[in-house]
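Aim 2 progress update. The chain analyzed this quarter is reproduced below.
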Amino acid sequence: MDRLTTEQRKKNMQAVKSTGSKIEVKLAKALFSKGYRYRKNNKTVFGKPDLTFKKYKIAIFVDSEFWHGKDWNKHKKDHKSNIDFWHQKIEKNIDRDRIVNKELISSGWTVLRFWGKEINKNLDEVISTIEKNIVIKKNGSY
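Predicted structure tokens:
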């Protein structure tokens, strides 16, 4: 049973936005402060990544654990209401992420996906991973 009323749940769900989440903004600001310039939610790149370095063909996705099904087999049973809807929705997101990864990689892109908690806890490591990939692409040794 849901702890919130139907109206409260509706209001919460309407507040969820597809772009500009706190974790996405945190990563973008950290990269910008280091002098990196990127495009946000570039519609010209398949899958509309959260951040792109088009010159180096690097696509970065910032995924929340809930919406993208982190440890899905373990957390699948956490849903207590509207179970069929949530299972279908999250599994569809997981499948879409796989399709996007496959398409971008086959087009020569490097795809980097980071979980929200990973960004919050280890921002320096995330930045370092991105920088390493930029250096690899810059030097042409991929």
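Residues 83-106 form the longest helix (24 residues). The chain has one domain: 38-139. These observations will guide the mutagenesis experiments scheduled for the next reporting period.
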